[in-house]
Amino acid sequence: MASFDQMDLSSVNAFPVLADSTISQTILGFHSSVFSNSVSKKKPGKFDDVRSNGWLDAMQSSSPPRKKMVKDIAIELASDDTDVVYYSWMLKYPSALKSFHHIVNRAHKKKIVIFLDYDGTLSPIVDDPNRAFMSIDMHTAVKGVAKYFPTAIISGRSCDKVYELVGLTEISYAGSHGMDIIFPAKDTISINHTNYIRSTHKQGKKVNLFQPAREFIPVINEVFRILVEVTKDIPGAFVENHKFCTSVHYRNVDEKSWPIIAQRVHDVLKDYPRLILTHGRKVLEIRPLIDWDKGKAVEFLLESLGLSNINDVLPIYIGDDRTDEDAFKVLREGNRGYGILVSSVPKESKAFFSLRDTFEVKEFLKSLVKWKEQMSATDK
Length: 380
Ligand SMILES: [Mg+2]
Hints:
Strand order of the largest sheet: 7-8-6-5-4-3-13-14-15
Bound molecules: magnesium ion
Keywords: Hydrolase, Stress response
GO molecular function, one term: trehalose-phosphatase activity
Organism: Deinandra increscens subsp. villosa
Function: Removes the phosphate from trehalose 6-phosphate to produce free trehalose. Trehalose accumulation in plant may improve abiotic stress tolerance.
């Protein structure tokens, strides 16, 4: 919170940037496998631990094949057979671009609200998370969407870091998988929650903060420091502090060292039963054991922004991570809106539609802007 109080929204340099710069990437997808309390009964220091509890299997299968990126266009390297499988999968998860008119027809006389994951959705996957930038075109598209629709970015990264990367003051941000929320203050909002606070940042602009895991900040800092220490001799390992969660990236670590990195993280976590571990894409994620996720963050933001009436509002959530499934589920189960999964490989999802890559995300956002402008022109 302090960093937001002090931030200068006119300058991305006002935000704290994590120190280490060797790095892998920050795609924060999760498998459902969770660091269970039973693990703490095992003796530390043995590789058997991480092998027997499935960590290594999860690490080895944690990232789908990457595509060669040329500018903003994904060049498909897969075989024809793979294409057939993908197109079959799209029967269940149709392209949001091809279904665009269906989507906006459902939005007839409703207010569209846009939720966007960041890594792998707005920015391509890169080895250095500090360099996961949006293209200029994508930035323009997001800004355009934010002009017409309430918009929020929901990411595994810290709120400060997401803001640094996106840089738009007019939208809401939910960092640390929704555990660190900042949204524009509206006088009419009344929220009764112990973790909700109003704040004023440096420029005097009122903002609302909601941080359901505030009590975990000291313990996350403590674990972050320990993880930095225990991984510092492993070339390529990078530990990132997202304020309410922390992550250990191993994309740039030699696979022979994965058992070592898994074991050391495992040994640290056995002393922290209130933290859980989940597997992202070449990243081990450590976060508080609380009943809060991106789906809860979506519900919270809809309610807080006065957009919870499903008769008047159509939320659209675009994301590529396992953690985004919580949000897809909220929208699907309540028949409230549409989840759109960004994926170039077939996978089971609670989303309704799909987009293949960040290029298609950008095209979809641009289509929304164009549609809204045409609607506005017609109304005049
Ligand atoms: Mg993502």
